[in-house]
C-alpha cells in the first residue's frame, strides 16, 4: 500500500553505510570548497604522523592501520578545514542583530574566524582588536571581580590535554574550581556512577576485548551516526557469530544492517551485514526497569539451577571475592514486581527473560552505552545497573568483558583526566600544590547547570568558554540567554561563530580565534604536537599539518597562557611563555601531577601512544568498601507517574548530519528525513490516539512538574516512526526550550535531555516570545530579534 508522506519524509530501506556514505562525503567536501585538499587531509586522519579526528572518541586499531573511512569523521574534518573565512569585512558588513536573524546552520557555515574581535555596543558590530589589547582588557576584567568564584571557566571536549591542563592551572591559581564542562551534559552520570560501583569513572575495556567477546549489549547509543568507526568492530563481532543485543526505543538502521564502506565485496554486491541479533525497543526512560528485569530473571535462574543441582548462573566466586552489596541487591530484585517492570520498560517479561538466558550463555560480555542511558533523571543509577549486571557474572576485568561508555567529544575524557573537574579530589589538589607551590581553592565549583543558574541569578559575572556553544547545548535556553546577557565579561575561544557568541554581555564580549586539530601549530618556529585520550584510555599525539586559516589565529595553549599572564601577572611564578614555546614542558608538568603519565613525552612518540592504567580492569576496586559495589536502584519509574494519558515522554536526538549544535546539513538519511528537522516522531497508533494524523503541524509543551508557559516549541510536523507507545522523539537542539534547567539527574546533574514529559496540541499562532532555538527547521530564528 502506498501512502503519501509529509514533505521530505521517505521510508529508508537500505542498510547504513555503503555508497550513500561515500556520496555524502563527496558532497561535503564540495560544500566546503575543498575537494582536492580535503581528500588529502582525510588521509592524515588518525594516522601516527597525522591528527586525531575531531569527531568522536572511538579508538583506532593500534592507530597505525590504513585509513579507515568514516563519513561523519570526514564531515567534521571538512567542516573545520573549510576554505571559507570571516574577518574584519564580514563583521563590518553585518551587525550582530542581522546575524542573529540567520539560522545556526548559516551562522557557523560562514567559515573560520581570522581575527580577535571585541563587541561594540554602540554600533552593534564585532570589531577587530589587537591581541594585546584584548588580553589586557580580559585580564583586568577578571582581576576586577570581588571573588574569583564569580567567574565560570567552560570547556568543550575538543581541546587538547595541554590546553586543558594550562586552563585548569590558570583558573585554580586565579582562585576557583568553577569548571562547567560539556561532560556535565554528557557522561557525567558515568563519572559519578562508576566510581561508586567499580572505583573508576571510565570504561574498562580495550579495543582488543571486542575480539574476545561473544555478547555485546548495546544500550542507548547510535554508533552508525555518532561513532561510525565502531561499526567496523560491531560488524566483525557479528560476522564471527557473536551476539549483539540492542536496547533502543528507535530502530536505528546501522544497528540493524550495515554495509561497510571498507569492504569491496559488500559495496559491490550491496550485501549488508546484519548487526543486532535481538532488538528490544525499550520505552524512553525505561532502561532502569529493563535492566532490573534482566537481573531479576538472572537471579531467579541461578536459584533454580542451584536447586536442580545444575551449574550456577551467577559467578559466585567472583561475587564473594570481589563485590559488596550482593544480598541487598538480590533482596531488592526479588522484591520488585514484574508488572511494574513490564509497564515501565515497555518490554515483555519473556523478552527480558530471554535476554537473561542469552546473557547466562555468554562467556564474555561487553556492555556499551551512550546518551540514551546517561541523560535521564536516573542517569547515574542507570549506569550503575549496567555495572550490576556485568558484575553478577564476573564480566569485569577479564578478556572480552567489561563496561564501555561511548564518550562524546574526541578529548572529553582527556580533559577530565588532566584536571578539568568542578569537584576535585583532595589528592588532586594536594598534588597541584606540591608541584606548583600554591594553595589551590578547596571548595567545589560549578558544573554546567550550576553555572547557568549562577549566571541567570546574577551570582556569576564573567565567563570564559574554551570552545563549545554552551547557551545552545545546555537545557533551558531562556536561562542561558538571561545568564550570558548578565555577564560583565564574556570570552569565547573558538574556531567559528555560533549563537552563544551573539548573546552579548552587558559588559565586554570578546571572540578569540584558535587553531583546529588539523592545522599546523608552530611555536618559535617549531611544530608542536598535542595529545588526546580516547574512550578506551589510549593517549596519543595529534599533529595538524594544514596552513592555519589566517596569520592572526593562535593555538589554544597560547591563548590560555596569555589570558593567564594578563590576569595573574607574575602570581605563582608560572613560566607561561616557556610552556607555550615547547609543549613538552606542559606534558612534563602533567606527568608531575598525574604519575600515570609516566615518561609521557617519550611514550607519545611511539606510534599508537600508550594506555593509561585502569584499576577496575585489573580487578583493583578503589571504592569505599575496597570491592566492586552492587548498588540498588530503588524504583523502576523515572518520572512521577501520571495517570494523564496525554503526557508523552520526549527524547532528543542527533541527526545523521550534525555534530552536537553544529548542523552540517538538514538530512537524517537513515531515519528517512530529508531537507528538514522540524518534526516530532511518534508511532501511528499514538498519533491517532491523541487525535492527530501524520503531517499535522503541532506545538509541543512541557508537562508535569516543569510546565511553564514559555516552555514550548512551535510548528513541528508529526511524522510516523516505530517508537514504543507513550514516547516521542525530536531533534536536539531545537527542543531545548522544553527542558528546564532544574530537570536533571539528581546525582550527577546531567540534564534529562532524554526523558522530557511533554504534551502536544494543534499549532497555534506564534506566541511572540523571543526564543534562542525555537522554530525548528529554521534553527534559531528568533521572533523578536535582539542581540
Ligand atoms: N557525527 C556525530 N558524532 C558524534 C556527535 C554528533 O553530534 N555527531 N556527538 C558526539 C558526542 S558529544 C556524544 S556524547 C556522542 C553521542 O552519541 P550517542 O550516545 O549515540 O547519542 P544520541 O544521538 O544522543 O543518541 C543516543 C541513542 O539513544 C537512543 N535513546 C534515546 N532515548 C533513549 C532511552 O531512554 N533509552 C535507550 N536505551 N535509548 C535511548 C536514541 O534513539 C539514539 O539511538 O557522539 C559523539 N559523536
Ligand atoms: N537536548 C539535548 N541537548 C544536548 C545533548 C542531547 O543529546 N540533547 N547532548 C549534550 C552533549 S552529549 C554535549 S557533549 C553537549 C555539547 O556541548 P558543546 O561542546 O558546548 O557544543 P558543540 O556543539 O560541540 O560546540 C560546537 C562549537 O565548538 C567550537 N569549536 C569547534 N572546534 C573547536 C576547536 O577546535 N577549538 C575551539 N576552541 N572551539 C571549537 C565551534 O565554535 C562550534 O560552534 O551538548 C549537550 N546538549
Ligand atoms: Mo557529548
TrEMBL record:
GO terms for molecular function: 4 iron, 4 sulfur cluster binding; formate dehydrogenase (NAD+) activity; molybdenum ion binding. Belongs to the prokaryotic molybdopterin-containing oxidoreductase family. It comes from Sphingomonas ginsenosidivorax. This is FdhF/YdeP family oxidoreductase. Its cofactor is Mo-bis(molybdopterin guanine dinucleotide); [4Fe-4S] cluster. SUPFAM superfamilies: ADC-like (SSF50692), Formate dehydrogenase/DMSO reductase, domains 1-3 (SSF53706). It comes from the Bacteria. InterPro entries: Asp_de-COase-like_dom_sf (IPR009010), MopB_CT_YdeP (IPR037951), Mopterin_OxRdtase (IPR006656), Mopterin_OxRdtse_a_bac (IPR010046), Prok_molybdopt-oxidoreductase (IPR050123), YdeP_MopB (IPR041953). Keywords: 4Fe-4S, Iron, Iron-sulfur, Metal-binding, Molybdenum, Oxidoreductase. NCBIfam families: Fdhalpha-like. Residues 112-519 form the Molybdopterin oxidoreductase domain. GO terms for cellular component: membrane. The keyword Oxidoreductase applies.
